[in-house]
Amino acid sequence: MNYLIVTTDPISTENAVLEYAKSYNPSDVFWVKKSPDKKEITVDIINNMINQFNLASVSGKKLFIIFQSELMNTNAQNKLLKTIEEATETTVLFLCQNLDRMLSTIRSRCIVYYHNTPTNQTLKQLADINPDTPAITNAARQLLTATKIETAMTCLPVLSKPENLPLALDALNRELSEIELPDTKKLALYQALAKINRNIAANCNAVNAFDLLLIALF
Asked: pTM value?
C-alpha cells in the first residue's frame, strides 16, 4: 500500500513516521532522500530504491520512506510508477509539502493523508489567553461546511486577524480532518491550507491568503 502524506510541518511528520517505522524490522526500513549535492531526487536514487524492492525482506514486509518526495523530478517519478503498482508486501510513504509537484499518476496510486501537527504547548497557551478561541473554532467549522460563499465569507474576519492566524490554521486543519467530504474536494482544501501557510509565512495579506480556501470550497 502506498501513502502520500501531505504536511506543512515536516519535522512533526518525520517524527510520526519514525514512530510508525518501529513496527518494522530496522533492516526492512529504507529512507530515500536527495543527495546533498543535488537539488532533486534523481533517477539514480530511485533505481537504487528499486533494487532494494527486489531483495528479500527480513520480516516479510518492507517500508520505504521518500522524504521531500516532491523533489523527485519527472523522470524519477515515472520510473517509480510500475514498481509501486506491483508492490505487495511493501509500503511506500511519500512525505510531501508541495502536492502540486507530484504527478497525478503517482497521486492516483496512493492513499492521500494530511498530517496534522499535534497541538503543542505554545498553541495551547495561545488558545487559553485568546478571547476569540471559541469564535475561531466555530468559524472554522462554519466555513468548511458552508454551502454558500456569502456564509463562508462571514467567517473570514475572525480567522484572518493577525493574532488569530496560528489558532485559525490549527482549527481549520483539525475540522477538515473530521468532516465528511469527497476525497477530491478535501484534497483541494488541504492544498489550499498548505498554500495559506506558505503565503502567511511570506508576509502576504492574510485575507487574500484565505481567498485560496474560498476558491477550493466553491
From this structure: 0.58
